[in-house]
Write a structure and sequence with these properties.
Number of strands: 9
Radius of gyration: 22 Å
Number of domains: 2
Largest sheet: 7 strands, mixed
Distance between the termini: 63 Å
Strand order of the largest sheet: 4-5-1-6-7-2-8
Number of helices: 12
CATH architecture of the largest domain: 3-Layer(aba) Sandwich
Structural class: alpha/beta
């Protein structure tokens, strides 16, 4: 069968969804390890998507209390010790969001799923992958995508993680703490010579595919042409990845001195806490600088004693559903506070902390029920140069959430002209 048959094309795409896009890297500039001692600590980004909204009427601070003079809502009180380093932004939204069940799919992209006539699904690159093209140049893993087990079937939208590549294809997530632990820290048991041979075999396959691609009849219709372009783009992504893997074959994985032992099978709150610990550990050895985590929703509330689905909980009004929603929000705040504690306690060579150089965003594309306005948005850390410890209420209630993504990219030194449907940066984030 021709390599350009529909079946092969789809099979190739499914095999490539886990590959982050690295077009900005040239083959001769593939990443190599470097010690950060004596250099400015690197910028890092973490995007934490918790899905299915919040208890909206009590999660946000009072709109009359803006700037640094605001009181954290009771439900976020566990974050009080970090209040000067945390900001909450209101009135951000994605103008194209029209599906309350797909919040995790478009949270980091802002794409219009109906942008292509005749298709009911379209997505674009996520902000983390734009950042990874730059921040991931010198780390073993260009980016790390974490996700709860079965995340793509959790009722909050397609995609195995929060990340989407340049072709708008989902980037697969690492679904358990055990898998994340081994990917980031376990030593390679496969002999070096065998790994080199496997890479060589992969390159031979790529050479064949590219050779055949050049001989394809150029008289293709528009749809087939787009499919071929997408396929070749994926091939280029593999080429860059293989070049990078070759550079790291001789380098052993670093393990933090205080790294915990292999985690057991965890779910819900225990899983989230462990994933946070693994992110900190990965930062300590500079394994990656860009992280996304599509957190568990159903197992999270189940671990709190709930007997309902997260979707059912999100349709709260009063009674048990609301009790579960509030308990979920308080627990997330506690877990975040613990995460920030550990980032602040972990020091860089210059005496600053991991937290000081990390841009952290916690939120979702959904407020509550099916409300897609005023996306819950909490930001923390110094990685994007934001003035923290404030409550910002955008004057325009439809301010693009992509304005925050653009601000985060530029604040971290990434020269992005725009992102998604952004109309500009959020100037208030940078004001002294």
């Amino acid at each position: 069968m021709s390599i350009f048959s529909r079946r092969f094309f789809l099979r190739s795409s499914s095999a490539l969804v886990a590959l982050p896009f690295l077009e900005s890297l040239k083959m001769a500039q593939a990443a190599s390890p470097r010690a950060i001692t004596g250099e400015a600590p690197p910028k890092r980004m973490v995007f934490l998507g918790m899905g299915f909204g919040v208890t909206a009427d009590i999660w946000y601070p009072d709109v009359e209390q803006t700037g640094s003079d605001f009181k954290l809502p009771r439900i976020l009180r566990p974050l009080e010790r970090h209040q000067k380093d945390v900001s909450i932004i209101q009135n951000l939204m994605h103008q194209y969001s029209a599906d309350g069940h797909s919040g995790s799919t478009f949270w980091l992209t802002g794409a219009n799923r109906y942008a292509v006539p005749g298709q009911n699904f379209f997505n674009s690159i996520s902000v983390d992958q734009v950042a990874a093209e730059v921040l991931g140049e010198q780390t073993r893993f260009t980016s790390i995508q974490l996700a709860a087990l079965g995340a793509k079937n959790d009722g909050h939208g397609p995609g195995g993680s929060l990340a989407w590549n340049r072709s708008g294809k989902p980037v697969a997530g690492i679904e358990t703490p055990v898998a994340a632990f081994h990917k980031m820290f376990s030593s390679e048991k496969t002999p070096l010579s065998q790994r080199q041979r496997l890479l060589k075999d992969q390159r031979s396959v790529l050479d064949t595919v590219l050779s055949e691609a050049k001989s394809v009849n150029r008289q293709l219709n528009k749809t087939d042409g787009q499919k071929l372009d997408e396929y070749l783009q994926s091939i280029r992504e593999i080429e860059v990845r293989l070049a990078k893997e070759e550079k790291w074959l001789h380098i052993d994985k670093k393990v933090p001195a205080n790294l915990i032992s292999e985690p057991g099978e965890l779910e819900g709150v225990a899983e989230i806490r462990m994933m946070y610990d693994l992110i900190v550990a990965a930062m300590q050895v500079d394994a990656s600088r860009v992280f996304t985590y599509r957190m568990p929703v159903n197992s999270m509330i189940a671990s709190l004693g709930a007997t309902m689905s997260a979707h059912s909980m999100s349709h709260y009004s009063k009674g048990e559903r609301r009790v579960v929603s509030e308990k979920r929000d308080v627990t997330h705040a506690k877990l975040l506070a613990e995460f920030f504690d550990k980032l602040k306690a972990s020091k860089e060579p210059d005496g600053s902390s991991l937290f000081d150089h990390c841009a952290i965003t916690f939120g979702t594309n959904l407020s509550s029920v099916h409300t897609l306005k005023n996306c819950p948005t909490l930001i923390a850390g110094g990685g994007a140069g934001f003035k923290q410890g404030r409550h910002l209420v955008m004057k325009n209630p439809k301010t693009p959430l992509c304005n925050l993504w653009l601000s985060t990219l530029r604040g971290a030194g990434i020269a992005a002209e725009s992102f998604g449907d952004s109309t500009g940066v959020i100037d208030e984030l940078f004001e002294a």
